[in-house]
Amino acid sequence: MNRTQMRENAFKLLYSLEIQKSENLEEQIELYIQNSEIESEEAKIYIKDAVMRN
């Protein structure tokens, strides 16, 4: 997964979290990663970091 795809997934997750107003952020991140079938450890770390900073 390249950097553009990682960034795109992070923004998709951020958008969905804004709509859902979920309480358990870490659980929602893990569910998104599983449902999107993201296997790259680098991508997982990037997405988690991007979401947690916001």
Structure, described:
78% of the residues lie in helices and 0% in strands. It is mainly α. The protein has one domain (3-53). The longest helix is centred in the first third of the chain and has 18 residues, at 3-20. It is globular and about 30 Å long. The chain starts with a helix and ends with a helix.
Structural class: mainly alpha
Regions with little confidence, pLDDT below 50 for 5+ residues: none
Query: Roughly how many Å apart are the termini?
Result: 22 Å
Mean pLDDT: 91
Q: Estimate the strand proportion.
A: under 5%
Q: Give a count of the beta strands, DSSP E runs of length 2 or more.
A: 0
Strands, helices and their partners?
Elements: H1 3-20, H2 25-35, H3 41-53
Helix pairs in contact: 1-3, 2-3
